[in-house]
Amino acid sequence: MPAIKVNEQLVKHVAMLAKLNLSSNEVAKFEVYMKQILGYVESLDKVNTADVEPLFSPIMDVENFYMEEKGSEFTSHEDVVKAFEQTASILRNAPKREEGQYKIKAIIEEQ
Amino acid sequence: MLKNNDIYSLHKMLKCKKVSSLELTQEALKTLKTVEDNAFITVTEDLAIDEATKADRLLAENHCHSFLHGIPYSLKDLFITENIRTTAGSKYLLNYIPPYQGQIAHQLKKSHAVLLGKVGCDEFGMGSTNKNTPFGHIVNPVNKEFSTGGSSGGSAASVGTGACAFSMGTDTGGSIRLPANFCGLTALKPSYGRISRYGQIAYGSSLDQASPIAKTAMDIACILEEITGHDDRDASQVPLKPLKLVEELEKINVAWLKNKTIGIDYSFLDQCNPLVKKALENAIKKMKGHGINLKEIALPHLQYSVAVYYLIATSEASANLARYDGLHFGHQTNFDQPTLEQTYTFSRSEGLHEEVKKRIMLGTFALSSGFSDQFFTKAAKVRRLIADDFLKAFKDCDFIFSPVCVSTAFPLKSMEQFEKDSLKEYMNDLYTIPVNLAGLPALALPFEFAENSMPTGFQLIGKQFRDDDLLRMGVCWQKLS
Prior knowledge:
The complex is a heterodimer of chains A (111) and B (481). Chain A has 111 residues and is mainly α. Chain A contains four helices and two strands. The termini of chain A are far apart. Chain B has 481 residues and is of the alpha/beta class. Chain B has helices spanning 7-15, 21-34, 45-60, 103-110, 153-160, 177-183, 217-227, 246-251, 267-270, 274-289, 305-320, 340-351, 354-367, 373-393, 416-420, 422-426, 433-438, 467-480, and strands at 40-43, 72-76, 114-119, 166-170, 186-189, 210-214, 261-264, 293-296, 399-402, 442-449, 455-461. Chain B has an eleven-stranded mixed β-sheet with strand order 1-3-2-4-6-5-10-11-9-7-8, with helices on both faces. In chain B, β2, α4 and β3 (114-119) form a beta-alpha-beta unit. Chain B is globular and about 70 Å long. Chain B starts with 6 loop residues before the first helix and ends with a helix. Chain B has 18 helices and eleven strands. In chain B, α2 (21-34) runs antiparallel to α3 (45-60), α7 (217-227) runs antiparallel to α18 (467-480) and α11 packs across α13 (354-367). The interface between A and B is large, with 62 and 79 residues.
């Protein structure tokens, strides 16, 4: 991996993407931090990963284990969205609310 | 009573009415108020008294619902509790009252355990020192001049002082095992997918796992009976039946461990400080003395674990923490900002602490356009090689022996070194992180006290979903001690 040039401009750009507003002190601190960590992770360059599949979720051995325990083939279950009726208790935590809805800044200005 | 007895003995005493749940709960409340260790963020005193009274009433009618029935416990403040403030150790969620019950709180309530309150941690579980939180340091129950380690420091402190019999923490990169190791306790990081994460505030979703901490491996088995089992609200959970092991463990003979093989990568020992190295060598000697087979193994890619973890965990954190937008719940900036965009940025910037911001920044960068292949995907490929190292090693052994940390608990006065040098703090996770990257279970066991009078210990890593074998091993080992 080519070395990344971490500077004030990059830190501010990343902060903008992360929706963070950093003080000048934080920008300086985070520049040092990102330089250090990104410098350290360059060690991964030494590892040959040419034919390696990335591992995003670490459940590896489940098929065998499942068969052993349950005697049936493993199928992951679906993530099904269910209705949640208590909207009032959700809105209770909203910093600003009005007439049973979240109150936020206008996104589109009235003409 | 709580300081010197484990869950299993307390359960027996409760059943034969030698002690009541209310007595235990009152003792716990008294302890947590007097120890001044900063472990609790929220104490649920009235609820605890109600739950203990109810538990006693059921016991009087000879209805004992579980090994945890009537036993006081604490919950790391990353677990959602319906109508009980849940902060994640963050100023951002200072006044957040969840409208729903998380699965861990639900299952423990069903088991009639008694919730004493919510305990502190590094903000959102991000840290190994407990310094990364606006709620202040939590001190080590063995010696107040030392750290509990993090991030589940409040869980370890509350068990160590006897303010409760057990606690539920979480482990994303070692967050239950490090505090257990620093405070002389036993903790299990279960296999990824074993326990529901519904209602567990997310940090790194491919790594996070709810993790119990208590005094003994038998206690951990008592807790697992209640918190395992299928929950279709967590898509990453593997639908396995509850792990009911206590009855078997009551009868287990220590001869069980005689034909077991433990793999050791001896290079790990050389990287520990002399106090820890000596303890690990003593543990190995004791294992040999009891007829456990030891086999040298190599885990060559584990040296890259810290680099891999801090790219993957921060990337996942940057996505998970995007939900803190200042609009739906939690902190909202007081400034009357002219735009919605500024409401997001000011609310997040005011509500989140420095370490969390650092990790969001790093993760945002690692996932950003033009860099994600170079950083995030590359890390995920090396993660595969780390997991493959374990799979290969487990062909020759049943368990893997490893340090938990290169040192004993950090003195509080040494914390400044981590303030100045994040990498130094991150390197403390070198031996705990690989387990999370590979989704394996690991049991942190206390061993002897070091020359500095602080606890030492080690971890045993198991095959995926073989949490049961780890507990068999842990119970046999502790019977020998």
